UniProtKB/TrEMBL annotation:
It comes from the Eukaryota. Residues 612-632 are annotated as: Disordered. PANTHER family: ATP-DEPENDENT DNA HELICASE. Residues 722-918 form the Helitron helicase-like domain. This is ATP-dependent DNA helicase. Residues 458-585 form the DUF6570 domain.
Length: 1341
């Protein structure tokens, strides 16, 4: 019984009987065999009691509970009978004794009768003692420990032998002794061996029968399998034994091993449940069992090296997993980075692979179809990735998979555990029956690169929600409020003038934002009692009750307002002391509440010249810090505020669009006007720390987590607003009032900061600077004289979107034109939010809505786009930037090889952005430098104005027909400047493209054309007059505008008008005022705007592209677009500046006057506000523009006033010490090496940049080392990510200001370290040194 499923040998049964000290009787092959406990040692007397077992089915033993047998009458016969029984009827006997009768009775009694035999004294019958199952269990339990110890010895016989165990030696000694001394025992043992040999074939036949039955009897097979499975499931011992047996068999039996492998492989491929189980078991074993892990790695490596098919398959799987699994991608990158830094061979291999990969990618992306398809896939992606730390919605290139295992140090781990949140880790459950509405990316944990970098550096990110930035959830009581109800329950009401724009009805704000405290008790008292909770009231919110205009007009629910106020009172810290009327009625005011007069809606009269800014503090020269400003100067002009808030000037886009409906409303008595802010003065937005929470209680339900609350890590206002508007819950992005409020306080904060900086600007080189004393720095009047540098409104240049900002951009563009030459193409790309539906579906996904854009009507699409201007603006920014980098500048070169570019964004009348771009194309032909034929061929190659054939290219045909076709009915925009169409549609058709040059000197005495016999106009000369040319083109224009005529070809059109191609070209040249190009067009294409086929196919929205002819037209064209949207604002600011100068105001007062004018005259759409607040790109170019101050007495920025006063007291203040370090100071402090000794200022500024303090400084880098400047002025590094910068400097006339001109030239292009080297001794002027001086360059060894 050492092997499972095998018979116990007789020797083992004898040993068992001796161990248990009980006789064992076995019934097999119709015989009883007795195995006496006295057979080995005769120490005790034998008895009739014993264990009776039946050898059932030739495979196992069953206990017999009842046995009857023949026996002698004497008591001693039992022992002798046992001996005779063993001798005569033992199975090893050659002539076994068969009983006369054998009967098995159910339920468990067995009667065995034996026949008498001659020579034996069997004359009577005796009943054997019953051994019940209970008795057997008692015996087995009693001797269980000895039994287990014995079988353990038997199974581990080899081990016991090796250990020379005492038990084995004792049993072996007894066995040998009995075998040698007891002849009878020796004979019995030999006979049993012979019998076992004879029965071997019988047992084999029985096994064959069972196998045959198992194979061909399905019922037997199923029952056996079921029984074994049940036993395997319930019996732990059996399960463990079977596992060990299977493992041993798997290792030793190769046929069984191969069979099991084939069966498992087949089951793995067909059974998904088994497949998942195997995978999970393997993963668990791989993670927990190091031996298995090592073995599997070795096997995989060997298989990878020897099996090419496996190698290829593994590579493909890894590539697919790398693309689809961000977690796997992050792990691979981290391991590769570590290996790249430590293993030089691996580093060389990676470099080689990267070169090969880039080359393959370059070849692949040189195919325009692949480029277009790649862009079409990318433009569908919106901000669908949520950072688990700052909870911002980001694009896929802004995040990486969050792997907490990468944060190794204890401090970093602690910060990561505090900051990382799984709030937006969405688990798709069974509730998503009709498809999950949330983006697929929400099922993984992501982190933005900013937060990841800060956590790894051991710092908590400023934008982390754990930095007291989590405003808490919005409860249902607050979610149910509409816009007017929200204002009525607010402690402060943000008044702002908003209007609706065209098409999508997007919102635009005009003027400043004014926050006024509201009286909630007054609001609740003025509203009348309602009959039931479902009743709605029509309410007009006014600044003053006497005004006929209103701020908002909507229906409200008193029940919703009451529930909201009850929640705020118990949960918002600013509402704890608010008392309101539970009955919501004040009978004494009912007559005043009801509108009895028929007020008429008035138009907004936007006259802001008398409205002073309420937030500009008096920047006292005693302190430059904003926190210590004089609060007296921060008080607003209350009279001016009330004057501007009076009347309908603060009416908003929430007014009804139908003025007839408004007039009819005045005849109903159920309209109530309330003015909860009447009599209250506006608050100071930046200094009132509670204003944000009081203005927007629905966004801050608990009144906490605002900008002015305490934060563990200091966060700037810009970062705070950026984080708020990009938050994943979209509560801030969907609130237009908060967007405009954020943009206003952001610009207000920047204006105050830049005013402070502007007042610190002074000029170096003044004669009185060396005589500054501490008394002068602490007295107001001397300070005014020292720092007076009135720049007008230039101090607003750093503020994005202001007129000075765009004027600075314009100057930078002029510098690019001077240094890079004339650009090749000017193009415009508009935004179509509804085409494709990607923007709409992205917004719906963020809201948990799985509807498709194609299932929505126009009104629903417009409402969705208005609901989230932040996402709409961000998707255009991402789409255009990807289009620029990966389509226009790709190796496919759809418009040629772009070497430089510039673009700026402009916001159309409907509030959406569109981009104006300039492109410099390599080796593009230039007008007047190359042949006209080359220029025309270049234009025809990249610009088209034809409508593609519908059958040949249906996709491009649909796009051109939808977005490039001008309307047949001219709009108001077309009729500006008193023209029929200022865009010159329909455009004239032409058989070929040609350059139309203006003819200034034409002969006015040329005779007029005569009519021939057919009535056609003919020209008798090569030249024609202007009148003739004009009449020809007017006739052509009328023919094209006639809807009844449908010309199929140009020849048909020309024949109808009596024209030729040559005559048409001459007429165009006569009337042309400047050089331009007439594109090839058919009559059916006269309404098509020029486009590039490849760019339009990818962009899928309106575009325009033109060839730039000369510098004059280019500059005029660019200037008109650059300043188009800011021209009026610039004029207003100029008037304000002149008024300030005429009023003899100080510099500070002038800046305050200009700032106030700007803030109250600005007009910003919702999407433009999103661009400004979220720091999206309003302009960009391939080269940075670096301004270099040249000349004498340059304007420089002084040190803060406190530092100046400290240096003055210490008597260490000098001319140079007063000012901040400039770029010229760093140039003079450049390293004294051969590389920098002969470098001029222009080259230094163009090719090198100053490193910031946060950058990693590596002076030993092989690729691009950092260089330390002298005098501890920082570090510089060469520009490698971009091309050399374009330098901009003050330009002087060589004739009017020769000294300034030559000084500027020498400063820029003559290497020097001190100013004296620009005019050495012996030269009186810079002009003399420039013209007659000489410089010797010395090289140091």
């Amino acid at each position: 019984m050492r092997n499972l499923g095998s018979w116990a040998t007789e020797l083992e049964i004898y040993v068992c009987a001796d161990l248990l000290q009980v006789d064992i009787y076995t019934y097999s092959n119709k015989r009883w065999l007795k195995f006496s406990k006295l057979q080995i040692l005769h120490d005790e007397s034998s008895s009739n009691e014993g264990i009776y077992i039946n050898h059932a089915n030739q495979v196992h033993y069953e206990v017999v509970l009842n046995v009857e047998s023949c026996n002698t009458n004497s008591d001693n016969d039992v022992q002798s009978q046992g001996k005779v029984f063993n001798k005569d009827i033992d199975c090893d006997n050659d002539i076994p004794l068969k009983p006369d009768e054998t009967e098995f009775k159910d339920p468990g009694k067995q009667k065995c009768r034996k026949r008498k035999r001659r020579g034996n004294n069997w004359t009577s019958r005796k009943k054997y003692t019953y051994i019940t199952q209970l008795d057997t269990d008692k015996i087995m339990d009693k001797q269980k420990s000895e039994y287990d110890r014995y079988w353990t010895f038997i199974r581990n016989e080899d081990a016991v032998r090796s250990d020379k165990g005492a038990m084995y030696r004792e049993n072996n000694r007894r066995f040998k002794y009995k075998y040698n001394k007891d002849y009878r025992f020796k004979q019995i043992l030999k006979s049993r061996r012979n019998m076992n040999y004879r029965l071997k074939n019988e047992y084999a036949n029985i096994g064959d029968k069972l196998k045959h039955k198992y194979r061909f009897c399905q019922i037997f097979k199923d029952n056996l399998i079921k029984k074994n499975k049940e036993r395997y499931r319930l019996n732990n011992d059996y399960r463990e034994k079977l596992k060990k047996y299977e493992i041993m068999k798997y290792k030793s039996n190769s046929m069984y091993r191969d069979h099991l492998k084939s069966v498992s492989s087949q089951k793995y491929e067909t059974n998904e449940e088994f497949k998942d189980y195997v995978k999970n078991q393997s993963k668990y074993k791989y993670e927990t069992n190091e031996e298995f892990k090592t073995s599997l790695k070795d096997q995989s490596k060997y298989k990878y090296e020897t099996n090419e098919e496996f190698k290829t398959s593994l590579k493909d799987q890894s590539k697919y997993k790398y693309k689809t699994n961000k977690q796997f991608q992050s792990d691979v990158k981290s391991r590769s980075q570590i290996k790249y830094r430590t293993d030089k061979n691996h580093r060389d291999v990676i470099k080689k692979q990267n070169k090969e990969r880039k080359e393959i990618k370059r070849i692949e992306m040189s195919k325009i179809d692949i480029v277009i398809n790649d862009f079409k896939k990318e433009k569908k992606n919106g901000p669908e990735y949520i950072c688990c730390v700052c909870h911002r919605l980001l694009f896929n290139n802004q995040v990486t998979c969050c792997n907490e295992k990468l944060y190794k140090s204890a401090k970093v781990k602690q910060i990561a555990s505090e900051c990382i949140s799984k709030k937006y880790l969405y688990d798709c459950s069974n509730t998503c029956q009709n498809g999950c509405a949330h983006p697929e990316n929400w099922k993984s944990l992501w982190i933005c690169f900013t937060c990841d970098r800060k956590i790894k550096s051991g710092k908590k990110p400023q934008e982390s929600m754990t930095n007291n930035l989590d405003p808490g959830p919005i409860v249902d009581e607050l979610k149910a409020l509409n816009s007017l109800e929200t204002h009525l329950v607010s402690l402060h009401i943000p008044f702002m003038k908003m209007v609706n724009l065209s098409k999508f009805k997007q919102h635009k704000v005009s003027g400043a934002t004014v926050c006024v405290p509201s009286n909630i008790t007054k609001t609740t008292s003025m509203l009348p009692r309602i009959e039931n909770d479902t009743q709605l009231l029509r309410i007009k919110l006014k600044r003053r009750k006497t005004q006929k205009g209103y701020y908002q007009y909507q229906y409200i629910s008193k029940k919703k307002m009451k529930d909201a106020l009850h929640y705020l009172k118990h949960n918002n810290k600013y509402y704890s002391d608010i008392e309101f009327n539970d009955d919501w009625v004040d009978i004494s005011n009912i007559d005043e509440v009801l509108e009895g007069d028929n007020s008429v809606l008035k138009e907004l009269a936007s006259n802001h010249s008398d409205y002073e800014i309420d937030e500009l503090p008096d920047i006292d020269e005693k302190d430059d810090n904003l926190s210590n400003m004089d609060e007296k100067d921060d008080l607003p002009d209350i009279d001016a505020e009330e004057e501007k808030l009076n009347g309908p000037e603060l009416a908003t886009c929430l007014q009804p669009l139908d003025i007839v409906s408004e007039t009819l409303d005045n005849h109903f008595d159920s309209i109530f006007s309330i003015s909860p802010a009447e009599g209250n003065s506006p608050i100071r937005i930046l200094t009132d720390e509670t204003n944000e929470a009081k203005c927007f209680p629905t966004l801050f339900p608990n009144g906490s987590a605002t900008y002015h609350d305490n934060h563990e890590e200091r966060i700037t206002l810009s970062r705070y607003l950026h984080c708020r508007l990009m938050n994943a819950d979209n509560r801030f992005a969907q609130n237009t009032d908060y967007i405009f409020y954020s943009q206003y306080i952001s610009e207000l904060s920047q204006i105050i900061s830049n005013m402070s900086i502007a007042l610190r600007k002074g000029k170096s080189g003044l004669n009185n600077l060396n005589n500054i004393t501490s008394d002068m720095l602490t007295t107001k009047e001397p300070l005014k004289n020292i720092f007076r540098n009135d720049e007008g409104y230039k101090f607003m240049t750093p503020i994005r979107g202001t007129p000075p900002y765009w004027q600075s951009t314009q100057k930078g563009l002029f510098a690019m034109l001077r240094q890079l030459g004339i650009p090749s193409f000017f193009s415009t790309f508009s935004y179509s939010e509804t085409r494709g539906g990607y923007v709409i579906e992205c917004i719906l996904k963020q809201q948990g809505d799985n509807r498709k854009a194609c299932d929505l009507d126009w009104a629903e699409k417009c409402e969705i786009l208005r609901s989230n201007p932040i996402t709409t603006a961000r998707m255009f920014d991402h789409r255009f930037h990807y289009f620029l980098k990966n389509v226009i500048m790709s190796d496919a070169e759809p418009i040629g090889k772009v070497i430089d570019y510039f673009y700026r964004l402009e916001f159309q009348a409907r509030g959406t952005p569109h981009a104006h771009c300039l492109f410099w194309i390599e080796n593009s032909p230039k007008i007047d430098e190359d042949k006209d034929e080359d220029v025309v061929d270049f234009i025809d190659k990249y610009i088209s104005s034809e409508l593609p054939d519908k059958d040949h290219d249906p996709e491009l045909h649909e796009i051109v027909n939808s977005v490039q076709r001008h309307s047949y009915k001219h709009t108001k925009s077309c009729k500006k400047n008193k023209t029929v169409c200022r865009f010159n549609f329909p455009r004239p058709p032409s058989k070929q493209s040609f350059i139309c040059r203006s003819i200034d000197n034409y002969d006015t005495n040329i005779p007029e054309q005569d009519e021939n016999e057919n009535g056609d106009n003919t020209c008798n000369n090569d030249k024609i007059t202007q009148n003739t040319a004009k009449s020809l083109l007017e006739a052509l224009w009328k023919a094209l505008s006639d809807e009844e005529k449908n010309y199929t070809s140009i020849d048909e059109l020309y024949n109808d008008l009596g024209m030729t191609q040559e005559l048409f070209q001459k007429a165009c040249e006569v009337l042309s005022k400047k050089n331009n190009v007439i594109l090839k067009r058919n009559p059916k294409d006269v309404w098509i705007n020029p486009y590039n086929p490849n760019l339009l196919r990818a962009w899928d929205a309106n575009m325009d592209i033109q060839y730039v002819f000369d510098a004059y037209s280019c500059i005029v064209y660019i200037v008109s677009y650059i300043s188009k949207s800011e021209r009026e604002m610039g004029l207003v600011l100029s008037d304000a500046q002149e008024e300030a100068k005429g009023g003899n105001l100080t510099a500070k007062e002038s800046l305050k006057k200009i700032s106030s004018t700007y803030l109250h005259c600005r007009e910003v759409s919702a999407q433009e506000s999103a661009y400004r607040v979220c720091n999206l790109r309003l302009r960009e170019s391939s080269r940075k523009v670096q301004f270099i101050p040249t000349g004498e007495n340059n304007v420089r920025l002084t040190l803060p006033l406190k530092l100046l006063q400290k240096k003055s007291k210490e008597k260490v203040l000098s001319d140079e010490d007063m000012f901040m370090t400039s770029i010229t100071d760093r140039y003079k402090a450049r390293p004294k090496t051969e590389q920098f000794n002969n470098m001029c200022l222009a080259t230094f500024c163009s090719e090198y940049r100053v490193m910031s303090k946060s950058e990693r400084i590596n002076e030993n880098s092989e690729k691009n080392p950092a260089y330390k400047l002298q005098k501890d002025l920082g570090y510089i590094i060469k520009r490698t990510r971009s091309k050399p910068a374009v330098i901009r400097y003050a330009r002087f006339s060589s004739t009017k200001e020769p000294e300034k001109y030559y000084l500027s030239t020498l400063q820029l292009f003559l290497p020097h370290r001190i100013d004296k080297q620009l005019k050495p001794i012996g030269f009186e002027t810079y002009e003399a040194f420039y013209k007659s001086g000489s410089v010797k360059i010395c090289k140091k060894n």
